[in-house]
Amino acid sequence: MFIKQGYSAALVLRLIGLAESTYYDRKKRKSQDAQAVLQGRGRPVPGYSLTESGAKISDEEIQEWLLELIAVEEHVYGYKLLAKCLWNQHRLKLNHKKSYRLCQALDILQPQRHKRFKHPRKLPENRVITGAGQLWQMDIKYGYVAGRDRHFFVLSIIDVFTRVIVGYHRGSSCEAKARLPDAGTRHGATLRP
Which of 39, 101, 104, 192 places its Cα 20 to 30 Å from the Cα of 95? Predict the structure, then answer.
């Protein structure tokens, strides 16, 4: 404010405790940002594309071709397939970014697809556990015995509240038939099917 009124920039900046380099850097960036907004980011749009033979085709003509494609059976195509159709019909070199920009200008972009996951994520139920024997967790691990060239399995059952292993099974197989009959009775739990 004082600098605009005619006071010396060096004097005003010294009084407020701001380095001159900071002031001039911010002043330069402010003017550059205003120019960038007017020009847009990136290199300027050339306004044409080339065919395989090297002929220049203007963006307006490409937009007409896009509208013709949309009017026929290609109305469900996205911008990448439309670019591929222009290559097949007119041998026009058009990358996906330019195809997107031209389709956006014509307002013919398809709605963006939503990814569908094959297995929806399910969060576990939150349970309030107040004592031992209310909730158990099972964990199966397997290993390899190098000298015997065999695998082994270890099934551990742990009480969630006390963090104590209430039962385990180890052997060369781990099937649903493997039972731990005394695990529940030893730790005071009633087993329910």
Answer: 39
